[in-house]
Amino acid sequence: MVKLAEWQGKSVFRKYGVPLPRGEVARSAAEAESLVRDGKVPLPCVVKAQVLSGGRGKGGAVRFASTPEEARAAAEAILGLEFKGEKVRELLLEEKLTIGRELYLSLTLDRTQRLPIIIASARGGVEIESVPDAEIDRQTVDPFPGLTSYEKRRAAKVLGLAGTQARSLDRLLDALWKVFQQEDAELVEINPLAVVGDGLVALDAKVIIEDDAGFRHPEYAEVRGDLTELEEVAREKDIAFVQLDGNIGVIANGAGLTMATLDVLKELGGAPGVFLDLGGTDDPKKVTEAFLLMARAKPTAVFLNIFGGVTRCDSVAKGLVEAMREVPANERFPLIARIRGNNEAEGTEILRSAGITSTSDLRASAQAAVDAARGRP
Ligand code: GDP
Ligand code: MN
May I ask the CATH class of domain 229-373? Predict the structure, then answer.
C-alpha cells in the first residue's frame, strides 16, 4: 500500500486531466510567503499540511490567507504541528476558490465482489465514515467496458448535477477511471469535490497505489520512502540491491538463486546483510559497479553464488577481481565464491589467480562464508 500525499495525488490527477486549483508545494514558511508574493499562488489562498491522515480541516492543518504575511504565518503555524503523530514537513498552497457545494467521489475495489466500485455522496467535505449509509451511493463497475454512460448518469443524479455540470462530471469520471486503472490504484478519492460555477474541482486528493503493482511503477518507490541511501543509489543505476540486518554480503544471479542463497546462509546460522542480484548481467563493468556498491555497505564477508547459464562465469569473475582491487586494503573483506556452469573453469582460474577460493559446492562454500563472517578460519 503506497499512500500518496495530497500534492503527489494531485500531480497524478493533473497528468490525467482531473481539474484542480492552482497550487505549489512549500517546505518552509519563507518559501510559502514568496510563492504568494511572486504570484505563483494567487490570493486568497489555502495553506494545507501534507500529512497522510485526514481530518486536517477540523484539526487546524488547513488555513486560509489573504496576504503574503498571512500565508507565512499560516505556514509557520502548520509546520510546527505534529498532526496525529506525523510531523508536518511539507505544505500545499493553493488558490482559494469560491465553492458552491462540496461532494464526495471515489473509486475503489470492492474485495468481496472483486469489482471496482464508484462511491458517491452529495454530502462531501466531511469524513465519509460519518455520512449515513442512506446518503452514500455505491455502484459496481464492470472493468471490461469500464465506465459507461449508465454509471455516469447515476452518479450525476446522486450528486445532484445536471446539464453542463453533469457533463463536467462525465469528463472527470473518465479521467478518474484512467487514474484508477493505469496507476494501479486501490483507492482514488476526492473529498471534497467542489462545485465551482458549472465546473467541478478536486479540492483534495487521496490516492493509494496497490503494492503488488509496484514493479509497474518504479516512480512510486521513492514515495514509499523506505529505501536506504545505498538502495537509492542502486535504483538509479538499475542494480537490484537490498539491505538487510545481517553482516554477510550476497551476490547471486537471478531472483530464485538469490533467495535460495539467503536461505542456505540462514540455515547455516549466517545473517545476510545485503544482497545483490546480478540478473543476467556478466558485463564486467556492471559487476564492478555493483560490487563497489556492496562494499559501501561494509559486509563482514561476501559470498558470491553464480550459476552460469547465459551468464559467463569468467566475465563475472573478471569484474569481481577488478572491483576487489578498487576496494582500499583496510576495507577489504573475505570473499568466498561458488561458481558453476558456463565457462566455470576459466572463471575459477581468474578468481584463484587473484587469491579468491572458489568451489562448485554450494553448502561447503556457504559454510565457509558463514565462518568467515564469524571471524573463524
Ligand atoms: P481534510 O480535512 O484532511 O480531508 O482536508 P481537505 O483537503 O478536505 O480540506 C478541508 C476543508 O477545507 C474542505 O472540506 C473545504 O471546506 C476547505 N477548503 C479546502 N480548499 C478550499 C478552497 O479552495 N476553497 C474553500 N472555500 N474551501 C476550501
Ligand atoms: Mn478531504
Answer: alpha beta
